[in-house]
Amino acid sequence: MSATGIGAAVRRKEDQRFITGTGNYTSDISRPGELRAYFVRSPHAHATIKKVDTKAAEKMPGVAAVLTGADLANDKIGGLICGWAITSKDGTPMKMGAHPAIAADKVRCVGDAVAVVLAETLRQARDAAEAVEVDYGVLPSVVDPAKAAAKGAPQIHDVAPNNMIYDWHLGDKAATDAAFASAKHVTKLDIINNRLVPNAMEPRAAIAEYDQGNDALTLWNTSQNPHVARLVISAFVGMAPEHKLRVIAPDVGGGFGSKIFIYPEEVVALWAARRVKRPVKWVSDRSEAFLTDAHGRDHVTHAELAIDANNKITGLRVHTIANIGAYMSTFSSSVPTYLYATLLSGQYAIPAIYAEVDAVYTNTAPVDAYRGAGRPEATFVVERLVEVAARELGLDPAEFRRKNFVKSFPHQTPVIMTYDAGDYDASLTKAMDLIDYKNFGKRKAESEKHGKLRGIGFSTYIEACGIAPSQAVGSLGAGVGLWESAEVRVNPTGSIEILTGSHSHGQGHETTFAQLVSDRLGVPIETVSVVHGDTDKVQFGMGTYGSRSGAVGMSAIVKALDKIEAKAKKVAGYMMEASGDDIEFKDGKFTVKGTDKSVGWGDVTLNAYIAHKFTGGQLEPGLKEGAFYDPTNFTFPAGCHIAEVEIDPETGKTTIAKWVAVDDFGNIINPMIVEGQVHGGIAQGVGQAMLEGASYNSDGQLVTGSFMDYAMPRAADLPSFKVDTTVTPCPSNPLGIKGCGEAGAIASPAALINAITNAVGHENVPMPATPSTVWKAAQGGMKKAAE
Amino acid sequence: MALEMSGEYDLPQKREIVWKALNDPAMLEKCIPGCETLEKLSDTEFQATVKLSIGPVSARFKGKVKLEDIDAPNGYKIVGEGEGGVAGFAKGQASVALADEGEGCKLTYKAEAATGGKIAQLGQRLISGSAKKTADRFFENFVEALKEYR
Questions:
Q1: Which of the listed CATH numbers 3.30.365.10, 3.30.110.30, 3.20.80.10, 3.40.190.10 matches domain A299-468+633-778?
Q2: 20 to 30 A from A254, CA-CA: which of A504, A565, B39, B122?
Q3: pLDDT digits (tens, 9 = 90+) for A219-244
Q4: How many domains does chain B have?
Q5: Which residues in A lie closer than 8 A to residue B86 (C-beta atoms)?
Q6: CB-CB: which of B85, B115, B121 is closest to A287?
Q7: Residue A171 burial (CB < 10 Å; 0-12/13-18/19+)?
Q8: Which is it for the CA torsion B13, B18, B20, B22, positive or negative?
Q9: How far apart, in whole angstroms, are the C-alpha atoms of residue A234 and residue A240?
Q10: Is A379 within 8 Å of A461 (Cβ atoms)?
Q11: CA distance A463 to A513
Q12: pLDDT score for B55
């Protein structure tokens, strides 16, 4: 292993600019003559729009225009769409209501835009927004997904009676019911997977510019996938043809899923810029982000586990109500279905699984993918059920898991997925050693001496990432393929640009992708740069989410590098008067097999371009190759997290005493970056389990709408993590890598709630397990965990 | 409604005088905290502009105040709703009852209030305190103004 190659803990190249304030984020960009946009947003959760009076606002100082939903409709700008078609049990397609970028007739959640003010300065735009008079006809609203489909609930979209978008199912109902009928023991749980606000450090932003001479638009935005944004804004919104629309996502300060989606504000910026023929800049403030970024999770679930006389799991049955919010966001339909129910087998060999999912509209912000997207919800269901079942049966939760683990691969689950490789025993054993499981009893006794409760909780999770084989997801309803592209451009002097369709918004691609190239071509890492996030530079790409950039994005780079190497060998062959087939390439040197004749990387790249050693008939000059890589399977990172907590029963304060994570991510490119991803993921999972919870009141007002009322995890809330790995290389991609971006957030909530419930001796501790919740549970004041 | 409050005050005037004051726009304008204008539209309807700040949000609310369930001189219900532009909206109602007590009279009220938009988003934790304070200030002002009232 070289100091900068695969497996080396190379410091992140991009951090130099990030930590010295020299990054280039969307809001750092200004265009000559730009106007600032400020949105007038609905204070009501559900209301008809009777009138929008913009006259007074238009006369305010600095105002260039005040535009409404009616203007948008007059200009025939299309609405936003959800790109994954889900079919209900009865075969009917999901019921998607219209989502105009500015509401014209009706608002469906607090924060819905009703007008946009364009002015010379942000302050002028904001002041003028005060003068826009909107006459609302307030309607009753519904925010609780469990009540959205009830009789008499307010109707949010006409196309979706009873607010039901789809009632979908997966698995074999008859076989599962049979498993339950013959079960010796059944464990039941009611689970609410709490709603989360993503809160990326950089709020969303968009700048749009219209080039009148070429009738072309450019959009700078905070996107995780600029090409998909361009495709949707072109093909569905109908803004401009793809070749007349350039989307640039420069440095992006975190996304966690929330920046995958195509949002109203960027559509409005583009439309407005063309309409007023001046650049338009919009930057979300934190309050807007709380209201308008797509939220995550928000499931209401009843789950049951069937166990036979030998303590083998024989069946799993789940009914989930998923809150989609007021509109269907870009991938919202897929999250509670194919990214959720397909993972309900966990690490276990379960013969029969049946899942039903009802997706409902409510008068809340749209809900879509958020770090883990469906898989944290699945893991929480499975890992809570298994832990509770073991406790009910008086079994050691580790041994009960081990007894039911999948042990041979490939393993076909009853819910679509084929697990390709793994060793669940190995990660469980290693994690138990690291946390010193055998002495937990001693530590518990010690805590009790001090009047404290101590608990330990496992989460042996699995996830599917490396999203995703295009044909497979197409058969499940996806509107796009999920391959990735790469282009390797070698310059005459030997430096290299990697163009990737992946997008880095904190993941460190500029380092890891360069490590791959450095390793493969034997060149210094400094000579490799990674280009991403610009539709005019990278031809096409599917972006970054679902822990896909390593397994899919880097695999595309490997394919392109294969072609580069093959061509470079030919060039070297002409240089040394040998056949390209007789050239060996190692450590940046091309050698004629069996001789000491060799040429270096820089000589070959220069000769590829000066083309003096071969004719045009023999070889094309230049050294540039591209590739598309479509995976043949998902990848299946898995592992074991164990949390150990100490609780003060008098105050309900939970202290995380220990945390061990042993993950199998397959081969690892940069262990330092992987560890960082695990740390961040656990922090987010701990946030969900103990601190965070988005809450609307019955009038549909977001009452956790700022950091005063929405608690984010801080360093002091977290212990020092013990992070380790086991390795079973992924067999389906050339690098054997699985992906690590989401695992921490997927595994950790179940581990922590399992530890807390173990400590308090009571299974019903809903998330977030705040001190008051934990105190109530510790004092025996909670209801049973399931009815 | 999101928020409920109640309270009672001993007032230094006869019930009839207090009742008159409660129906006097000039008196209301003087006593409603932050009230900038109060215009009588009819015997039971007023148009008001009130400046309110809750936590970090300060806004001028324009809206209507209506008197309902009038039972002179025993009490009424006062219902208000105001739009604060980008700050959102506030609405509320209060049932006010008067009863003779010694030389003066006793006023009891039961109020409900709700807010929406930015004021609800940012001020949630502060709303109940602010609303209670606003109600208290109204009645403090009212008690004070009654001393001179005839």
A1: 3.30.365.10
A2: B122
A3: 999 999 999 999 999 999 999 999 99
A4: 1
A5: 40-41, 126, 129-130
A6: B121
A7: buried
A8: positive
A9: 5
A10: yes
A11: 23
A12: 74
Dihedral pair phi/psi, residue A718, rounded to 5°: -115, 145
Minimum distance, in Å, between the CA of residue A43 and any CA atom of chain B: 4
pLDDT, average across residues A313-333:
98
How far is the C-alpha of B129 from the C-alpha of B134, rounded, in Å?
A: 9
Q: Which CATH class is domain A483-629?
A: alpha beta
Task: Tell me the percentage of chain A whose pLDDT exceeds 90.
Answer: 98
Query: Does B79 touch chain A if contact means CB atoms closer than 8 Å?
Result: no
DSSP letter string, B113-148: EEEETHHHHHHHHHHHHHHHHHHHHHHHHHHHHHTT
Mean pLDDT of A535-550: 94
Out of B86, B119, B120, the one facing A129 most closely (by C-beta) is B86
The Cα–Cα gap between A666 and A551 comes to 10
Residue A580's CB is within 10 A of a number of other CB atoms, namely 16
Other C-beta atoms within 10 Å of B4: how many? 11
The rounded Cα A270 to chain-centroid distance in angstroms is: 26
Contact status, residue A701 vs residue A762, Cβ threshold 8 Å: no
CATH code of the domain covering residue B115: 3.30.530.20
Residues of B in contact with A132 (CB under 8 A): 85
A787 or B132, greater pLDDT: B132
Find out if CATH 2.60.40.10 is the number for domain A31-139+203-253+259-292.
no
Q: Residues 6 or more apart from A588 whose CB is under 8 A from it?
A: A521, A522, A523, A600, A601
Q: For chain A, state the CA radius of gyration.
A: 27
Q: Where are the domains of chain A?
A: 31-139+203-253+259-292, 299-468+633-778, 483-629
> Which pLDDT belongs to residue A636?
98
pLDDT at B1 over 60: no
DSSP notation for A287-344: HHHHHHS-BB--EEEEEEEEE-TTS-EEEEEEEEEEEEESS--TTTTTTTTTTTGGGT
Residue B94 lies in domain: 3-146
Give the closest residue to A619 by CA, choosing from A656, A653, A570: A570
pTM over 0.90: yes
Cα of B143 to nearest chain A Cα, Å: 34
pLDDT of residue B136: 87
Is the Cβ pair B125, A709 closer than 8 Å? Answer: yes
Q: Name the one residue in this structure whose structure tokens are 């809903």.
A: A766
- pLDDT (0 to 100) of residue A464: 96
Give the type of residue at A362.
Answer: T
Reduce the secondary structure of A549-612 to three states and give it as a string: HHHHHHHHHHHHHHHHHHHHHHHHHHHCCCCHHHEEEECCEEEECCCCCEEEHHHHHHHHHHCC
ipTM reported for the complex, 2 dp: 0.85
- CATH fold match for the domains A299-468+633-778 and A483-629: yes
Burial of A392 (0-12, 13-18, 19+ CB in 10 A): middle
Q: How far apart are CA B111 and CA A637, in angstroms?
A: 56
pLDDT at residue A685 is higher than 90: yes
Are B2 and A291 within 8 A, CB to CB?
no
Give the model confidence (pLDDT) of A580-628 as tens digits: 999 999 999 999 999 999 999 999 999 999 999 999 999 999 999 999 9
Token code pair at residue A164: 């039901």
SS3 A659: strand
Q: Does B113 touch chain A (CB under 8 A)?
A: no
Instruction: Please give the DSSP secondary-structure letter assigned to residue A350.
Output: -
CA angle in degrees (0–180, nearest 5) for A198-A203-A207 = 135
Q: What angle do CA A510, A744, A286 make, to 5 degrees?
A: 75
Q: Does an H or E element contain A642, and which? A: strand A638-648
Whole-number mean pLDDT of chain A? 97
